[in-house]
């Protein structure tokens, strides 16, 4: 019998998460039946969406939601041989018995020397989010100017690089000088620390005096209010996240953008990458191709130890990571 460690949500978050919101439990797993496999987590993802989705997709006492790269250690399902790796939406747990439903095998030609953890980042959900936001939502064109906030995160850092591949000017906002240096290394044309600029409006104007054709929105709140004023007429906004408000106990209110959107004739669209799931295999190959060619760089913030899942999650929400936040078991 294999023992699985799991992290449970003991109480719904009220404001910023606390250690007391989580409890580590151990459970005995049955032997796999015909058609089933036993998975062992290798890497687990921590993502901002977990903070929001926990409220309406989880009950107190449920295991924390999430995705992992797992190794097949026992198999009675020929589609998943022992030793193969999969991406699994198994949540915060070390071991899982399942029938294979929802498992995505790691692509067969995954290059040696490329960590499988990237299947949770640049060659996974965040990379797909960046790609679809740029191509499907914004329709970004060569020569346009793109603004992306939370630009040093798992999604934002890929957004900026893909935009540069398409021949665009890219302006990124991040929350530390180290993150700004990272963006410059990635090839962003302009980058600034929103926490230290005297005026966000002036920083945006300085970075692109003519305004912005497109805005990849990850933050929301007051940043969004200021950024919309800098959009060009007929500008497009892809709304991917709103992390500035995820931990608020009282919902943010106003100012409201309607008049700006009318006068500038802006288009704003929220999205999730699952809308284009039918394109995932092709899109992942494109992302991997850019990575192999050296056109796409990836950086990870790795926390070691399954016992540190809550700390990694809270660190992510505090903005401690540069690039994708990962837990290595």
From TrEMBL:
GO terms for molecular function: 15-oxoprostaglandin 13-reductase [NAD(P)+] activity; 2-alkenal reductase [NAD(P)H] activity. GO terms for biological process: prostaglandin metabolic process. Gene3D superfamilies: Medium-chain alcohol dehydrogenases, catalytic domain, NAD(P)-binding Rossmann-like Domain. Its EC number is 1.3.1.48, 1.3.1.74. It is found in: Cytoplasm. GO terms for cellular component: cytoplasm. Residues 15-327 form the Enoyl reductase (ER) domain. It catalyses: an n-alkanal + NADP(+) = an alk-2-enal + NADPH + H(+); 13,14-dihydro-15-oxo-prostaglandin F1alpha + NADP(+) = 15-oxoprostaglandin F1alpha + NADPH + H(+); 4-hydroxynonanal + NADP(+) = (E)-4-hydroxynon-2-enal + NADPH + H(+); 13,14-dihydro-15-oxo-PGF2alpha + NADP(+) = 15-oxoprostaglandin F2alpha + NADPH + H(+). The keyword Nucleotide-binding does not apply. It comes from the Eukaryota. Its main location: cytoplasm. Keywords: Acetylation, Cytoplasm, Fatty acid metabolism, Hydroxylation, Lipid metabolism, NADP, Oxidoreductase, Phosphoprotein, Prostaglandin metabolism. Coiled coil: none annotated. It holds the Pfam family ADH_N_2. Belongs to the NADP-dependent oxidoreductase L4BD family. Monomer or homodimer. This is Prostaglandin reductase 1.
